[in-house]
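On clarity, I found the account of how folds are encoded harder to follow than it need be. For illustration, here is how one protein appears when written out as sequence plus C-alpha cells:

:::
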Amino acid sequence: MTEPKMSKAELDAFYAKRRKKNWAFLAILGGLAVLFFAITILKMS
C-alpha cells in the first residue's frame, strides 16, 4: 500500500477526525453485535 504524501501535522489532524467518527461507528456496531449475540444465545437456550 502506498502512503498518501502528507505532512505529519496534516496526518495527525486527519487521524484525529477519523478516530472520533470511528469511535461513534464502533459504539453503534458494538451495540448491535452485543444485541445480536444476546438474541442468538436466548434462542439457543
The longest helix spans residues 8-44. The mean pLDDT is 87. Residues 18-45 form one domain.
